Amino acid sequence: MFDPEELHEKLTRADPGYYTIDVCRDIARKLDRIAELKIERNAVLLAHNYQRPEIFEVADFTGDSLGLSLQAGEVTEADVIIFCGVHFMAETSKVVSPACKVILPNLQAGCSLADMADADDVAERIDELREQYPDLGVVCYVNTTAAVKAMCDACCTSANAVDVIRSMPNETILYLPDKNMAAYAAKRIPEKKIIPWEGYCYVHHEIEPGEIIRVKNANPGMKVLVHPECRDDVIKLADAALSTSGMIEYAKQSDFDRFLAVTECGLSDLLRIQVPNKQFFRACKICRFMKMITLDNVLDSLEKLQPEITLPEDVRVGAEKAIRRMFELTSPDLIPAALKTAV
Ligand code: SF4
Q1: What's the number of domains the chain is made of?
Q2: Residue 127 DSSP class
Q3: Could you tell me if the CB of 143 is within 6 A of ligand 1?
Q4: How far is it, in rounded angstroms, from Cα 311 to Cα 90?
Q5: pLDDT tens-digit readout, 262-317
Q6: Which of 290, 291, 292, 293 to mutate to test the pocket of ligand 1 (most atoms within 8 A of CB)?
Q7: Domain span at 188
Q8: Any idea what the CATH number is for the domain that residue 140 is in?
Q9: What is the largest CA-CA distance in the chain?
Q10: Are residues 267 and 213 in the same domain?
Q11: Is the beta carbon of 289 within 6 A of some atom in ligand 1?
Q12: Which of 122, 204, 222, 253 could lock onto 258 through a cystine, CB 3.0 to 4.6 A?
């Protein structure tokens, strides 16, 4: 049973204005019902680090794209995965855990970055570039549809993009869809020619260096952690450029006690809940897609086991190949159980 008082104490660390005791009573009631339904449905709930704080309370696993892919690939006992994140992430869960029914509680939760790389356009561009660069390798960020992943040689996440590109045997790489991450990788791997796709995450792209400098000047001595989807002029101001789970680990391990997490605002909320003895400042933006899933959506999806994410088998197998290659290139010991047994 969830205790409204405890929830109130915890969730006000993320947003003191919103999580009043009355709101927390309502949240506790819904969380209790979700917990019951999870058992009845033999379901696990995976939540991305940018979700609403109340979703973290009922999640079996919280993580970034890499962590969630790993976790979905290890889900062998459950019948259902409730995926609290955005559409391409739920697709990735289906790719690595095909035997499970994968549910995305709100189908409107898409991703404008993933939508910037349309599968037909990607196919055309690959053909065009292969004529010019016969040794072209194609690396796609996990923030792509399964149909696009199926056309790539390897997938990557923000945590391992540089390692994946560096490990590819090809000298010329088409990297898609995030041009900021392509620039970030190109700086660190000057020996390769990295051709960017012209996409960007509107959340990270809109963060201005001036915002960081203002918070930094007002709070000297804090560490600035920046997501690699940010622009180069923002990354230059960082003490470290990290994935969201990398930021959490960094904040937990560091001897410093004050940080600025420059990414989607949900990460600052999560840090304030998970690392209560340290201070986190904000220079963040809200992703409207990541905040679309509510507890009501989760309840409804567990009742009805809908909306379900399905994929044509050829697309699923192609995307699985790109994801498996990512692990083979960078961390073969981490290959999830489901991908080890795949043929
Ligand atoms: S934060 Fe950016 S990349 Fe992530 S879901 Fe939102 S729009 Fe897509």
Answers
A1: 3
A2: H
A3: yes
A4: 11
A5: 999 989 888 999 999 999 998 889 999 999 999 999 999 999 999 999 999 999 99
A6: 290
A7: 113-202+312-340
A8: 3.40.50.10800
A9: 64
A10: yes
A11: yes
A12: 222
